[in-house]
Design a protein that fits this description.
With about 325 residues, this protein is of the alpha/beta class. The chain has helices at about 5-15, 65-75, 100-110, 125-135, 150-155, 160-175, 200-205, 245, 280-285, 285-295, 305, 310, and strands at about 35-40, 50, 85, 115-120, 140, 155, 185-190, 215-220, 250, 255-260, 270. Strands 8-7-5-4-3-1-9-10-11 form a 9-stranded mixed sheet. A two-stranded antiparallel sheet has the order 2-6. α3 packs parallel to α4 (about 125-135) and α4 (about 125-135) packs across α6 (about 160-175). One iron/sulfur cluster binds next to β2.
């Protein structure tokens, strides 16, 4: 799934990163635990979206062992300031049948905010009921088409009618269950393949979402995804400090921790949660060294960062 960090936080931090370095008070300290913990429950996917470098994935397909997930959640549950937990990574999270159970566990351990991004192709009524019942707080649906043609040209391998119906049913079921969560974010990415039909997209969802409880639409622009795509030109000079090592930790489904969610092949490893704790990795020498390097705009040795348009954008 594409960009995991919560939108408002991401936008705020990105603008901060563009301000001159001496003013970066934010970068002088970090909290004892990441603010956001991105846990990839699976790296398998049933789609081949045009903007997603799935064909470049070299990692073995898999699902995170439930015991490992539980270990991670237990570790952070004792903290006063618990991380927001994202339950997806470079894959379709609903392919993992234990997803509702993972949500339930995170909520039972006191995680205040659970979030995931899905393509909704498998969000059938039974699964919808389980996810709502488990207590998921927020769910973003990547929906990059406005009719059969534009949708299948962009979200290759998926079916427009099935996805539309799943979203509509989801909203109905949530209402029947008298729940206000998960709040829904319907996301659109204007592209050549979908005709950049932003107004049509708004029309499609106008009467479906429940704005009173916080459902909303979201519009994004294409991203290079750590160099996996080539939408935005990347010059030689990196111009901003990436906030990731100060705010978030990404965990791959095999338990390795990496610098961020766009490192889809896990080449910028910072630790292994099979043998280390979240706090050990977050406060340990590897991530501390990265903070120092990034703070000086030194991205040497970070091949994904060097091709990432987040830090090259002016
Ligand atoms: S649904 Fe699309 S964007 Fe998400 S992981 Fe699969 S191919 Fe990539
Ligand atoms: S690839 Fe590097 S620079 Fe880009 S978001 Fe990830 S950690 Fe930050």
């Amino acid at each position: 799934m594409m960009f995991n960090a919560r939108d408002k936080i991401t936008r705020g931090l990105l603008s901060l990163a563009r301000s001159p370095l001496p003013f970066h008070l934010y970068y002088r300290r970090h909290f004892p635990l990441p603010s956001v913990l991105l846990i990839e429950n699976t790296n398998c996917c049933n789609a081949r979206c045009v903007m997603c470098p799935r064909e470049k994935l070299t990692r073995k397909p898999g699902v995170m062992a439930f015991e490992l997930f539980e270990k991670i959640i237990r570790e952070v549950s004792g903290a006063k300031r618990k991380p927001v937990v994202h339950l997806h990574g470079f894959g379709e999270p609903l392919l993992d049948e234990s997803l509702p159970e993972r949500i339930r566990l995170a909520k039972a351990f006191g995680v205040k905010h659970t979030y995931l991004v899905t393509n909704a192709s498998l969000l059938f009524p039974e699964t919808a009921g389980k996810i709502i019942g488990a207590g998921l707080d927020e769910m973003k649906i990547s929906f990059y088409g406005t009719n059969d043609e534009s949708y299948s040209r962009t979200m290759r391998g998926l079916n427009f009618k099935v996805a539309v119906n799943n979203v509509r049913e989801f909203v109905k079921i949530r209402k029947e269950m008298k729940k206000k969560t998960p709040k829904l974010i319907l996301q659109y990415l204007p592209l050549e393949t979908n005709g950049a039909a932003t107004e049509e997209f708004k029309f499609l969802w106008r009467s479906v979402l429940d704005k009173r409880i916080g459902d909303r639409l979201n519009f994004v622009s294409p991203d290079n995804f750590g160099g996996g795509r080539d939408y935005n030109p990347v010059g030689k000079k990196i111009t901003s400090v990436c906030f990731y090592p100060w705010s978030a930790l990404s965990v791959l489904c095999d338990g390795r921790a990496v610098t961020c969610c766009v490192d889809y092949n896990g080449v910028q490893e910072v630790g292994d949660l099979n043998v280390q704790s979240v706090a050990e990795i977050w406060n340990g020498p590897v991530v501390s060294g990265i903070r120092k390097n990034f703070g000086k705009l030194d991205y040497g040795g970070f091949p994904v960062c060097q091709r990432c348009d987040w830090v090259h954008r002016q």
